[in-house]
Amino acid sequence: MTQVSMTVNGKSVSGDVEGRTLLSSFLRDHLSLTGTHVGCDTGQCGACVVHVDGEAVKSCNMLALEADGAEVGTIEGQANADGSLNVIQQAFQDHHGLQCGFCTPGMVMSAAALLKDNPRPTETEIREYLEGNICRCTGYHNIVKAIMAASGQDVGAIAAE
Amino acid sequence: MYSFEFEKPSTVAEAVAALGAEEAQALGGGQTLIPTLKQRLAAPAKLVSLSGIAEMKGVCVEDDGSLAIGGGTTHATVAREAADKYPALAELASHIGDPAVRNRGTIGGSLANNDPSACYPAAVLGSGATIRTNARDIAADDFFQGMFTTALSDAEIITSVRFPVPQAANYQKFLQPASRFALVGVFVARYADGVRVAVTGASEDGVFRWGEAEQALSREFRPDAVMGLRINPMNMIGDLHGSKEYRAHLVGVLTRRAVAAAG
Amino acid sequence: MPKDSGIGASSKRREDVRFLTGSGNYTDDINVRGQAYVYFLRSDIAHGRINSIDTSDAESMPGVVRVFTGKDFEGVGGLPCGWEVADRHGAPMQEPPHPILAQGKVRHVGDPIAAVVADSLEQARDAAEAIAFDIEELPTVTDMKAAAQEGSVKVHDDLKNNICYDWMLGEADNAKVDEVFANAAHVTTLELTNNRLVANPMEPRVCVAEYSRGTDEYTLYTTSQNPHVIRLLMCAFVLGLPEHKVRVVAPDVGGGFGSKIFHYAEEAFCTFAAKACNRPVKWTSSRSEAFLSDAQGRDHVTTIQLALDAQNNFIGLRTDTYANLGAYLSTFSSSVPTWLHGTLMAGNYKTPVIQVNVKAMFTNTVPVDAYRGAGRPEATFQLERVIDKAARELGVDPIALRRQNFITQFPYDTPVALTYDTGDYNGTMDKLEAAADLAGFAARRAQSEANGKLRGLGINCYIEACGIAPSNIVGMLGARAGLYDAATVRVNATGSISVMVGAHSHGQGHETAFPQVVAEMIGIDESMVEIVHGDTSKIPFGMGTYGSRSLAVCGSAMVKATEKVIDKAKKIAAHLLEASEADIELKDGQFTVAGTDKSVAWGDVTLTAYVPHNFPLEVEPGLEETAFYDPANFTFPAGAYACEVEVDPETGKVTIERFTAADDFGNIINPMIVDGQVHGGIGQGIGQALLENCVYDENGQLLSASYMDYAMPRADDVPFYTVDHSSRTPCTHNPLGVKGCGEAGAIGSPPAVVNAVIDALHSGGKKVEHIDMPVSPSRVWAAMNG
């Protein structure tokens, strides 16, 4: 066992982990931050996306010890300080960008990383950026729409009904 | 995963020493290695992370004008920092995996793994790049030795890759729809002394140079120059995503498109 | 004006807040103090005889609690099949045992050989690697036509052959069918495959089971669409436990699409092991394991023939289908290629003579069962592809040919056992033509051609039978379960309401949509109503969520229970208002004496129900009612879809440029949620049509065993969709007039995509008649150059 320390959602945390402990298991099992989900074992579904030092990474594809000393952000830290939904989360609710909710934490974390680098992405840029986030429920329509809306773009014209 | 020790050295020398241990294995960004470990398809006794080695990170221009990329540089960094100097390479890096994978995966890790469908081997071979390790310089033409096989010896670390910057270049990637690796990828680079064409994803022998196309394009750098050329499907990969014949066909199509896009 | 609350309002989903903040409670988020972990040792060969298994080394490994093999389960039942299909002569299907852990033989890659319970998952896995076994490899059969051959390798030694049943529906007199075809002016024939799929909800399956010696009670948390069904099957057929001692909880579930209907071995195993080990046990499937253990979908091979008269009227239809059931009968597997498929072969058309033949086969592959649409996509695909081919052969417009043959009079008795209560297929097609701007297609095609691409338009119509189903009918057809549902409306003293429902929400938004109905009926705010679901200790005995049935069946039960509540509340109100019950009206949460201004508020009546000081003596205190609802018929959503594709003639790559869905779902409670359901269905349908393919090699090895080879649709594989559900013919037999919308997109989209690709190829001069799904670039290129 090795001690690992990091900042998660602004709080300093530490724990004893094995070499093989994944960041996703450290978050879920050691810190009980179960909002980060694991949907595959080949690093493709993106349900486990978190931010490490401000960048989106797949936490099931990174050893916890690799995040030693890092600033980690998870879905649990995304809401506003008063507990209300942040702009992206609110857009997902407003535009029905989630159904079963399982891929949602990864989607929100990826969307946040995208908008940080590209505050007004086009539809094509959003779709390409989400290449590593699989959703089985929504057909992506409302996810893309929600991210466009979260970036302040008018989505009224996007076909709905 | 089987249990393993984890070590994170901060210099190349320390890493080389750590890799001298029995059953030690280098860990780059881990985007291929960690899934492999999860499946228990590998059982290293020790993983030596290269992510803490500052001297292996970054993109810079060498005195001879070539572009040097540290072996531990992520795809995202290459996509960002090579954009001015070698746009075709940056563009290639910007389409490896997905954004989260690009934030972890490294050029050194990709090359050491030499997946037959990976993008970087095409750029390295297509640019005639030089792979610099802790021990030596290896020419791209000598480095790739078939699927998942390279000239690297045990405990040898790719510290940097030096790319001669071409006059024009382009990479065309046709996606394997599931993995998003290249079903076929073609990298075309035009240098003063000739054109290089490297193909990934297609061959059972891994990345390869398409000599006939290089000759034709060196004579005349336009898409039609390779119109009549055919790749023999015999040694192509045939699987549920595409037959041997289809891959052979795509090599031609993508080469033409790469030439057209390179301009 | 769109409403802002109640029926017809796009109320925002209340469940979203927990999902968006990481505070959902999925099964893998549940950890029980002292839990041990299960690892299943699964067969890596597709067919083999187990000569011996030696677990002694494994048992002595660090952390191991116990190792189980098939022997430990000799005293308990196997997994039951919930539907007995009779063959064409009335004989029951062949029904082999389906053990919890393999007994005697392994029959597919992934078949569990043994299970290790240990302190940690990695320890369990280490120990599983130490299990020594001698399994003699046997020849395999994975191809269903090969499996039907005399002398084929037998998956189950004790069965006559690999044919589970040879079934027929419709016109039984072959001579009569032959005569129709002999007299036809034109016959179109098509052979096609409906590709095997993997459902792939993003949440893999998980079970956590605990047992209390003190109370002899079990709790199973499981990723299920129907906790009561799991409890019934597991208690009554597998483990022989009294139901009142077993609580099954399906908490937040990360998608199902059918694959979480079924009772799986892992559920029974964990429940059994929790007692055997006297310790809670947890199993979390990896995605790799899911590919080998979740029931898969589709996998039909069909020859279909359509007979037309000289005026292009459909006069006969005959199909011969092989359906792959895999190695064992999963819970509802037998019903999918038969009663959920053959019955839909009339489609939207008045074809008078139909004969459907289905041979269902056992093979050395993972079991196949219902996946979104379940049988109906297979039916629609055959029918709509053959109609498209007929239109091309006859040189007629595919929309005109469909319109000419639409059923227009309702109710309509089909030749394949269903009675459609209502519909307006021409009206829905009108909506499609407008919404899809079909008039502008020619210009869009010209634009594509200018860019060097081929453009195609594909039309598809579908009908589905949803709201499964009348219990008496399905009972006659072999179902071993009733298919009603139930709801309890519990009014609290202050007027808020908890509704306990048998349906389960795993993405469908019941927690939002169901309260809209109750709130509207009473005239109170939606926030006053809450839905409770997914826990057998809290909800009435309901049959769960599948087959687009939740609102049509469970919603109807909820309406009935709410009506009972209102009736009783009116009695109380009448007492308070000193009026006759018959004169009491309920509107906007106020009970009023008709024609007067005397009224009492909902909250005052509910408080009186629980503080019954001034109360009618003949009425019981409290305000809580339960209703069970068994539908009188299926519901029949129908629609018309249009897909426009571009094909890159050099690479064969197909791009979806436009996709338009016009659906008739009857009445709609929450349009936003309905749109979302259609979007998701279309996404999966495009996945089937272009990307997804579950493939085994001849040795039974799964080639598409992870997301590296099984192509899931991504955001950049699909466009924005246009969805129109303004065509509305309300269901005639349920109180809400609703039909169900969950499967429509997955049923309606694959043929539209393939029809569009074929159209595109023809526009480029390539006379390609058919390409099997997935219509991958490689296949398109091969077809163009074939």
Automatic annotation (TrEMBL), chain A:
Instruction: Specify the superkingdom.
Output: Bacteria
Its taxonomic path starts at:
Bacteria, Pseudomonadati, Pseudomonadota, Alphaproteobacteria, Rhodobacterales
Q: What is the protein name for this chain? A: (2Fe-2S)-binding protein
Question: Which PROSITE patterns does its entry note?
Answer: 2FE2S_FER_1 (PS00197), 2FE2S_FER_2 (PS51085)
Q: Which UniProt keywords apply?
A: 2Fe-2S, Iron, Iron-sulfur, Metal-binding, Oxidoreductase
Q: What are the residue boundaries of the 2Fe-2S ferredoxin-type domain, all occurrences included?
A: 2-78
* Source organism per UniProt: Ruegeria sediminis
Automatic annotation (TrEMBL), chain B:
**What Pfam families does the record point to?**
FAD_binding_5
Q: Which residues form the FAD-binding PCMH-type domain?
A: 1-168
Q: Cross-referenced Gene3D superfamilies, in alphabetical order? A: 3.30.465.10, CO dehydrogenase flavoprotein, C-terminal domain, Uridine Diphospho-n-acetylenolpyruvylglucosamine Reductase, domain 2
- The protein here is known as Xanthine dehydrogenase family protein subunit M
The record's section on InterPro entries has:
CO_DH_flav_C, CO_DH_flav_C_dom_sf, Diverse_Substr_Oxidored, FAD-bd_PCMH, FAD-bd_PCMH-like_sf, FAD-bd_PCMH_sub1, FAD-bd_PCMH_sub2, Mopterin_DH_FAD-bd
Highest taxon in the source lineage: Bacteria
> Mind telling me which SMART domains this protein's record contains?
CO_deh_flav_C
Give the originating organism. Answer: Ruegeria sediminis
Automatic annotation (TrEMBL), chain C:
Can the keyword GTP-binding be found in this entry's annotation? no
Protein name as it appears in the record: Xanthine dehydrogenase family protein molybdopterin-binding subunit
* Keyword annotations from UniProtKB, A to Z: Molybdenum, Oxidoreductase
Aldehyde oxidase/xanthine dehydrogenase a/b hammerhead domain mapped to chain residues: 21-139
Q: Which InterPro entries match?
A: Ald_Oxase/Xan_DH_a/b (IPR000674), Ald_Oxase/Xan_DH_a/b_sf (IPR036856), Ald_Oxase/xanthine_DH-like (IPR016208), AldOxase/xan_DH_MoCoBD1 (IPR008274), AldOxase/xan_DH_MoCoBD2 (IPR046867), AldOxase/xan_DH_Mopterin-bd_sf (IPR037165)
Pfam families reported for this sequence: Ald_Xan_dh_C, MoCoBD_1, MoCoBD_2
